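I have been asked to look over a protein record a colleague put together. Alongside the sequence sits a line of tokens, each denoting a local backbone shape. I have pasted the whole thing underneath without changing anything:
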Amino acid sequence: MRRIVGSLIALAALGAPSYASPPPSPSATPRPPCASSDGCADQATAAGTPPYMDVLLGRTTLAYFEGAQLDGLPMAVIVDRQGRIAWLGLPSALEEPLTAIVAGRWDLKAAARRDRTRRLAEPRLEEFRALLLAGRFPEGYALARSLVRGPFAQEPGYLRLIASTIVGERTSWSVRDLDLALEAADRAAAWTDLTDDTVLSALARAYFVRGDLEAAVAAQEAALALTDPPLPIHVAALEKYRGALAR
């Protein structure tokens, strides 16, 4: 955990941006690949596939999304030399499996077992939140801890989600397991090698709620440095954490 903080402070020392006011909005808005959403829908209907966010329309895209049971972006997929899906996950966690796959060291059967275990555990996230909503905090946090140290131990996206569920800006649980939130966010940051802004922002929030303001500022600065243009939500969080540290 201290290694993560030290790395974040080192990143901050390189010069994180400082904003006195919200950053300017992008000069241009990217255009969709077709003239209108109706046009996208028409193209998709003609192709026999529904549109995905009015952008991804092809049969190949649909086949990959359905086959891999993907329901969100961004998502990276590695296809090995035999044309098999060898790994899928957050782009920020791509380097380690890609290196192993290219070097021929990837255990595809073990990866498949981990993926099946993860999928079987996914419904338990809803159970975790339901326990918190019911005020059954010891049971809820015991469940979350088993997920963090078990099927989601190498899944930064789910680790971030658990941390955010516990200490997120919009949560107001009467009992919060701050140690567990930090453990989940810290594991996610380690697995993504400090290259995912959403993970670093969740880590910063966990530090902030615990009262470790210097670490919160360092993590949020690192998150902000990864976005271009800067995300207003990251800017606002950094200003909040810096303000608390200055008091």
